Amino acid sequence: MEKKNNNRNIGIKRIGILGAGSWGTALAVLLCKNGHRVCMWEFDRSAADRIILDRENRAFLPGVPIPESVQISSDLDAVIHEQDVLFFVVPSHVMRSVGASVAKTLNSGPLVVSCSKGIENDSLLRMSEVLLETMPSLNPERVVVLSGPSHAEEVAQGIPTVVTAASTGSESGRIIQDILKSPSFRVYTNPDVTGVELGGALKNVIAVAAGISDGAGCGDNTKAALLTRGIVEITRLGVAMGANPMTFAGLSGIGDLIVTCTSRHSRNRYVGEQIGRGRSLHEVLESMVMVAEGVRTARSVMDLSTRYQVEMPISREVYRVLFENKPPKEALYDLMTRNPKMEDWA
Q1: Which of 203, 223, 326, 329 is catalytic?
Q2: Distance from C-alpha of 325 to C-alpha of 110, rounded to nearest angstrom
Q3: Known catalytic residue: 203?
């Protein structure tokens, strides 16, 4: 009996990548290799010219050739013009301004994919919510959130990677699944946008905690405890905000948490590790080229935990170390000496 072929032919897509950091570049390379027409936006003209000349993003993803067919431009209007899909791969703190700029010239209603993992300070909106607020003509069912354990360095090298595409519009999620899938990149769909987005953002705060633990000289036992209890408080807040608790047991929850807390590629773990070794937050951030989203998200998490009256002891101690100059070893001591209780997920 002939095996049924479930693959759908969606054809070649015209794709705009907004943001030429490591993840944006890795996605551009992946999508180009999948046969799509890709144009990547780099806001800095001199940086864009350098990438075009080198055919490599030496600042953010060195050693990865960018195919000649990938167009690179600092002209935002040119990059978004008549695209089928727009991937927003900019840091969370500029998502609002980029979304507003795109909204001025957005025409044919492309699919929009949010690839940034953060929660906006002050508004406490998730990134898909920021895009919907700044782009009022955008249909919510045309928005997809891409998340999961996916370091750009490994994706660009073709190392097997599995992620989640979340959307309230099932067809939108399947389209993104189809254009991204390859022998080294597998995509699952998920209708729980809130849970997928929160998992991707909140795990960065726990990764800072894991790094602090490493830098302070703690061991594997400590990190295992931080990951386990970290996913508990992530789930606790997520459920309070309307997410499906099972989402946090998946790729955008425990999967992303594991890789971000343990990998040498993790910027958030690195920030925590350096602070655990005694460096100041300002000193660490000044020395970095890439953005560690967990630093800003730590502020938002504290505000969210207050709004929803959810206890988040690890996130609270990370906030105090980052912004109140609490000594890391004192924070670890306070976590360990909290009142005894029964282990639960509530």
Answers
A1: 203
A2: 45
A3: yes
